[in-house]
Amino acid sequence: MRYHNITKDDMLNGDGLRVVLWVAGCTHKCKNCHNPVTWDICGGIPFDEKAKKEIFECLQKPYISGITLSGGDPLHPANCSDIANLIKEIRRDYPEKTIWLYTGFCWEEVCTLDAVQNADILVDGPYIEEEKDTSLHWRGSANQRVIDVKKSLEAGKVILYCED
Ligand code: SF4
């Protein structure tokens, strides 16, 4: 897996202050994507042990609520297993921290993946310019959903974490 950036103390991509990993690779090609530089799966730099250590050190800070995995698309087929492994390691070492996952795929396409099943929140769907709404929390267009993963898996249908 390759990545572009690790941002810290981020307040825009999930609840609380978060560390955000921006991975490389996305096939959705949304019109007016906020981050087209991340589309190339060969872009950015390798996600190595040093990058992982940087994230884990950040997660140790008590005021950091958790991690958000974004991009690019963390669920691009080339990223999926590395992301699933990273999530498992974070769960093991930091069980009190929350894990948010952004993807251009819809819940129905990815809800059986390990990476999704072990996350807390999935923000799903492509960005659709015609449905842009800057008043929404944590997403850019109204088609995208902020999904409570555990409740949705238990209910067998999408349960939203927030609707506004
Ligand atoms: S899914 Fe996200 S990163 Fe990918 S093209 Fe759409 S807005 Fe851009």
Bound molecules: iron/sulfur cluster
Separation, N- and C-terminal Cα atoms: 33 Å
Largest sheet: 8 strands, mixed
* Count of strand segments: 8
What is the domain tally?
1
Strand content of the residues, in percent?
A: 25-35%
Q: What is the 3D form?
A: globular
Give a written overview of the molecule.
- The chain has 164 residues and is α/β, with parallel strands linked by helices.
- The protein has one domain (2-155): Aldolase class I (TIM Barrel, Alpha-Beta Barrel).
- 24% of the residues lie in helices and 25% in strands.
- It has 5 helices and 8 strands.
- The chain has helices at residues 49-59, 80-93, 107-110, 114-117, 149-155; strands at residues 2-10, 17-23, 45-46, 64-70, 98-102, 121-124, 145-148, 160-162.
- It has an 8-stranded mixed sheet with strand order 3-1-2-4-5-6-7-8.
- Strand 1 and strand 2 (17-23) form a beta hairpin.
- The protein is globular and about 40 Å long.
- The mean pLDDT is 97.
- Bound molecules: iron/sulfur cluster (SF4).
- Iron/sulfur cluster (SF4) binds at residues 26, 28-30, 33-35, 38, 71-73, 104, 126-127.
